[in-house]
Amino acid sequence: MERLQKVIAQSGLTSRRKAEELIIDGKVYVNGKKVTELGTKVDPNHDEVVVNGVPLDKEEPVYFMLYKPTGVISSVSDEHGRKVVTDFLPTENRIYPIGRLDFDTSGLLLLTNDGEFANLLSHPKHKIYKTYIAKVEGMPLRESLKKLEKGIMLEDGKTAPAKVRLKRSDKQKETSIVEIAIHEGRNRQVRRMFEAIGHPVIKLKREEYGFLHLKGMNAGEFRELKPHEVKRLRELAVT
């Protein structure tokens, strides 16, 4: 038996918090009876759960890691007909990305149909570091990189401290390669951070998500996460 809000979240329909709101608002029925009490236990394999008039699909949770190429939308559909991340995964499950990578950013992206898992990993209070490799204009001074390490003021507030390492610089091309790890997920955050210190990003790739990495993978390839990896990500999120 599982808590009703957990069953709804794991179906991929919504987050657990939103599921709780739907229960309180009388939008959830179990075996034909309205349920408004949080913590109600149900059998996900036998009880019929209906949310907003729609029965929950009893899908097995799936967890994927994708090496997103540039020029791909981090969504399940696009009104302009552009390629989306779910186009790369041959699955019938209703899956969606956890967070997003910009259209012009490549790298490691997680996808799932487990709403609770997605909410856990994307919640701001859960500090899972994501590591990016950025090719930037110019050769940043150590003082500039220290600003990123301490947190820098953007239009939507000061960023959390980052881990930053200058990997190399090319004086002839006037470009540099910088590794930066952050645990926040604001829109175009890494690009805006480098713009704030006067070194706009030319190319950006997310290489690591916590302990997961892209080694051995090519752009457009994916793999299913192993059970121990899913467990470890859950543990990382709550520590």
UniProtKB/TrEMBL annotation:
The keyword RNA-binding applies. Its EC number is 5.4.99.-. Keywords: Isomerase, RNA-binding. Belongs to the pseudouridine synthase RsuA family. Residues 2-60 form the RNA-binding S4 domain. This is Pseudouridine synthase. NCBIfam families: pseudouridine synthase. The keyword Transmembrane helix does not apply. SMART domains: S4. It holds the Pfam family S4.
